[in-house]
Write a structure and sequence with these properties.
By secondary structure, the protein is mainly beta. The protein contains three helices and 27 strands. Strands 1, 2, 3, 4, 5, 6, 7, 8, 9 and 10 form a ten-stranded antiparallel β-sheet that branches. The termini are far apart.
Length: 408
């Protein structure tokens, strides 16, 4: 072998070694950084989210740094939800977090995950209601909040972190962080879903009407806000009888994680054939559109979700296709007042649909109402029974089944 050939061989070996070292360095940096890394630039009052998919089972190293709010509660922390069954597969909790300087909390762990899609979250809202959960009058609660509801833990923001790293580099080709980060992409779904009433945003009313064609079991999951009083809650009405068959309240819910006001319900209802209406309402704060305190552990499930194992027994109901029209007033112009009269030989339930303009709970401009001779108003279009119908200004519409008319 000539001297030139030896030189070429040595150069090739050196190039291969350099490439190997470069690859190893990249792998080590990736393992240190994590294939899911929330990085820096932290702010209080924020929910951060990354979704990732494992094509095969893998073991992960988890490193998380957050903050204690009290000795028994965290203000800032991370967790992981398995999207297929909404199970929390890992969570930074006060029990296994180590307190460092001041309120700083750190946790390190390893866990094995099956193939599937997962959602990693990190919240930095805290929960001021922790200081007033014990009860008392409104004035007493407000005083406690002002006295103890401090946010000194926000000084830890520069140290907050949440990283997931693959323990085996061979798993790297089978682990992918998903491009989109919208929490709404993680909403409950799957076979047998009758209705997804969420994730519900700020000051929103979601509604769905469905027909049960034969006796069936309807499974529901609802997540909302209940503290002193219900704020964001769901319900189901039997429109054929006027009966409310289920409503979300404190008695039938459990803590959903995060703020003490987050509540979650799970139930299975045995429904007889008939027409049903499901709804979920939010107020102007603390929801999937605008959190005001730490969200529940499944933030994408804020709302009401319905499933059945017998999809053929449940179908969406469109009154325009299925019900005969009794009376109609349409195409109403400016400064108009129009009426329509009808007579009934017997009691019956009717479906009312109205589209108009209401600015708030006290001002109505274009609206409808129904009067029974001798009995006064039996239905009227108002703010509380309407929802936005689109357009630049508030133009709500009402869609409701009336209760049975009194008398013969």
């Amino acid at each position: 072998m000539s001297r030139r050939d030896v030189s070429r061989l040595l150069l090739a070996v050196l190039a291969a070694l350099a490439l190997g070292l470069a690859v190893r360095a990249c792998v080590e940096r990736e393992r240190e950084r994590g294939f899911v890394d929330f990085g820096g630039g932290w702010d209080p009052d924020r929910l951060r989210h990354y979704a990732f998919r494992l094509e095969r089972p893998a073991r992960l190293a988890v490193a998380s740094a957050g903050s204690f709010e009290t000795d028994s509660a965290l203000a800032a922390y991370g967790w992981i939800v398995r999207r297929a069954d909404r199970a929390v597969v890992w969570q930074m909790t006060p029990e296994h977090a180590r307190r460092e300087r001041g309120s700083l909390a750190v946790a390190a762990d390893t866990l094995g995950l099956d193939a599937g899609t997962y959602d990693a979250y990190f919240t930095t809202f805290g929960d001021p209601l922790l200081a007033v959960e014990a009860g008392g009058s409104f004035a007493e609660r407000l005083g406690e909040l002002l006295r103890f509801g401090n946010r000194a833990w926000t000084s830890d923001a520069s140290k907050w972190a949440f990283r997931l790293a693959l323990l085996d580099p061979a798993d790297a080709p089978f682990a992918h962080r998903l491009a989109r980060e919208d929490v709404r992409d993680a909403a409950p779904a799957g076979p047998g879903l009758v209705w997804a009433g969420g994730p519900a945003g700020t000051d929103e009313t979601l509604a769905h009407t469905f027909e049960v064609r034969r006796p069936t079991a309807l499974r529901l999951e609802a997540t909302g806000e209940i503290f002193d009083a219900p704020s964001d809650v769901g319900w189901i009405d039997n429109l054929s009888t006027g009966e409310r068959v289920w409503t979300m309240d404190r008695a039938n819910t459990v803590w959903a994680g995060g703020s003490v006001k987050n509540r979650r319900a799970e139930a299975t209802l045995a429904l007889a054939p008939g027409l049903y209406g499901a709804g979920f309402r939010t107020d102007g704060s603390h929801d999937a559109g605008q959190w005001r305190a730490n969200p529940p552990l499944d933030p994408a499930a804020w709302g009401l979700f319905l499933w059945t194992d017998d999809p053929a027994a449940v179908a969406a109901f469109d009154p325009w296709d299925r019900l005969p029209r009794l009376v109609g007033i349409t195409g109403v112009g400016d400064d108009a007042f129009e009426t329509a009269t009808f007579a009934l030989a017997d009691s019956l339930r009717v479906w009312v649909y109205a589209l108009g303009e209401l600015s708030d709970r006290d001002e109505r401009y274009d609206y409808a109402w129904l009067v029974r001779d001798g009995a006064g108003t039996v239905w009227e279009m108002d703010y509380d029974r309407t929802r936005p119908a689109g357009g630049g200004r508030p133009h709500p519409f009402a869609a409701a089944a009336l209760p049975r008319a009194p008398g013969p």
